Amino acid sequence: MGEVTVSTPLDRNSSFDSQFIKKRETILAEVVADPIIGLYALGNRTREISDWMEENLGNRVSADTISAITDRVLPEIKAWKSRMLDSVYPIV
User: Fold this and answer.
1) Best CA proximity match to 19, nearest among 48, 63, 59, 65
2) All structural domains of the chain with their residue ranges
3) Helix (H, G, I), strand (E, B) or coil at 56
4) Which pLDDT tens digit goes with each residue over 52-83?
């Protein structure tokens, strides 16, 4: 096809500030865990969540990363599903 020249811009003045992952944040899961878990709780699949994040936040997160994040809350979900229920729930 031919030669391609790629020019990478430099940020010598530190003027670039990412809105998705802030400076000095090293763990992506801490930044986007709440929206991912919220979407997962609503019944969205990992690929749907990935598509939503790309569309709304401008960055794509892999389905594997999303799965790893949702796996962190699975023990809590299982505990909640297997909790003992009260015998009576009064409604006012």
Assistant:
1) 59
2) 28-81
3) helix
4) 888 887 777 788 888 888 888 888 878 888 98
Residue 20 carries which DSSP code? S
Length in residues, the chain: 92
* Tokens, residue 22: 């802030």
Summarised one tens digit per residue, pLDDT across range 30-42 is 667 778 888 888 8
One-letter amino acid at 14 equals S
Rounded Cα gap, residues 44 and 39, in angstroms: 6
Does the predicted model carry a pTM greater than 0.85?
no
How far is the CA of 86 from the CAs of 53, 70, 83, 90, in angstroms? 39, 28, 10, 10
Sequence-separated (6 or more) residues with CB below 8 Å from residue 49:
36, 39, 40, 61, 63, 66
